[in-house]
Specification:
Number of strands: 7
Largest sheet: 7 strands, mixed
Number of domains: 1
C-alpha cells in the first residue's frame, strides 16, 4: 500500500462531502472514450468474456456516479474509421457492443441501459429495477452527432414528403423530438486526451467540458469528484 493512500482516501471523502452538499447538482454526465480504452490494441477477436481493465473501470464509473446521485449517464465510444474496411468496422462495432452489454448487465444500479451502434442503427435495451440512483445509461458506439442529426433530418423529410408537415413548420423543437438522445448533458468528461468527438453535438452546446490527462484505465473516483466539483464552481452562461 502506498504511503499516500490514507491521505488520498481522506481527500476523497472531503471532496465527496463537498460535492453532495453543493446546491448545484449534475443531472446528466457524458463520458467520452476511445475503443482502445476498452479493448487494448484493437483486439477484435478477444472473447467477450474477457473483462479488460477498461471495462472494469467503466463499471466502477457507473457505481461512482450512482453514489453521487447522477440521474443519466451517456457514454460515447469513438471508433477509428480511417483506413478501416466496412467488414472490419462492423466487427468492431459488434464486438464492442457485446462486450459493453456483457459488462454492464451485472452493474446493480437499477438503471435502464440502451446501447446504440452506427453500423446497425439499433439499440439493445436492458431494463433496470428502477430502485433509484442512476436511472438511465445511454451508450453510443461510433454513432456521432452528425449521424444522429442526419437520421433526424431524414425522418422530418419523410413527414414533409407525405404532406404531414410544411417546411415552415420545422423548428428546433421538431428537430429535438427526432433526435435519439433527448437529454442535454451538464458535464462532459474526456479522459486521457483533449480531442473531442461530435457526439451529442446538438445537445451539448451549453455543456461544460472537463479534460484530464489521466488515462482512462487509471481513472479513479477522486478524478470524477474533481471533475464534478470543478463543474459546481463554474459560472454557467448557457450561451449568454
Amino acid at each position: 500500500m502506498s504511503l499516500l493512500s490514507p491521505v488520498i482516501a481522506i481527500y476523497e471523502k472531503i471532496l465527496k462531502r463537498e460535492v453532495l452538499n453543493s446546491q448545484i447538482g449534475v443531472n446528466h454526465i457524458l463520458l467520452v472514450l476511445d475503443e482502445s480504452d476498452l479493448l487494448p490494441d484493437g483486439r477484435v477477436s478477444m472473447s467477450i468474456s474477457d473483462n479488460t481493465k477498461g471495462l472494469k473501470r467503466l463499471k466502477l464509473f457507473i457505481k461512482w456516479c450512482d453514489s453521487l446521485r447522477i440521474d443519466v449517464i451517456s457514454i460515447y465510444i469513438s471508433v477509428i474509421r480511417e483506413g478501416v474496411g466496412r467488414k472490419l468496422l462492423d466487427a468492431v462495432h459488434r464486438h464492442l457492443k457485446e462486450a459493453v452489454i456483457a459488462a454492464l448487465s451485472d452493474v446493480d444500479v437499477g438503471a435502464s441501459i440502451a446501447v446504440y451502434t452506427d453500423s446497425s442503427a439499433s439499440a439493445r435495451f436492458i431494463n433496470g429495477s428502477g430502485r433509484g440512483g442512476v436511472k438511465r445509461i445511454n451508450v453510443s458506439i461510433g454513432m456521432g452527432g452528425r449521424s444522429e442529426l442526419t437520421k433526424a433530418v431524414r425522418e422530418i423529410a419523410k413527414h414533409v414528403e407525405s404532406g404531414e408537415i410544411e417546411p415552415d413548420e420545422i423548428d428546433e423543437k421538431m428537430i429535438e423530438a427526432n433526435l435519439i438522445f433527448k437529454s442535454e448533458p451538464d458535464l462532459v468528461i474526456r479522459s486521457g486526451a483533449t480531442r473531442l468527438t461530435d457526439f451529442l453535438i446538438w445537445q451539448s452546446v451549453y455543456s461544460e467540458f472537463y479534460f484530464t490527462d489521466v488515462n482512462w484505465q487509471n481513472f479513479r473516483k477522486i478524478d470524477l469528484l474533481r471533475a464534478v466539483r470543478d463543474f459546481q464552481l463554474r459560472e454557467r452562461r448557457f450561451g449568454r
